[in-house]
Amino acid sequence: MIEDLFEVSGPETVVLRLHVQPGAGRTAVVGRHGDALKVRVAAAPEGGRANDACLALLADTLGVKADQLELTSGASSRSKRVRITGAAPADVARRLEDAIAEAATGNKRGSGGVRPSGR
Length: 119
Description:
Elements: E1 6-10, E2 13-21, E3 28-33, E4 36-40, H1 49-62, E5 69-73, E6 79-85, H2 89-105, H3 108-112
Parallel strand pairs: 2-4
Antiparallel strand pairs: 1-2, 2-6, 3-4, 5-6
């Protein structure tokens, strides 16, 4: 179930578990990694660049603004937790399902990644 990837902590607040692969060839949602969403980011894990790229990818994938995302743990780890505010859990689940399905079928997010907007 997609709900295994996040925890609901309010009516419009979700905490998403991530497994991040920094320094990848492309920035993209990959799929599941145990009970986390696996994402690859092209940015190196130096100076917070990979974290910034990860948050930008999530904002684009989930259709939220960057200021609605907060890295709550894992700043220097591949395992991270991101709080998403102002988004209904059902919307987050639907968008994650879409992203994982796209990764599995090899179209936009799975084969070439999604470039964060504004870059």
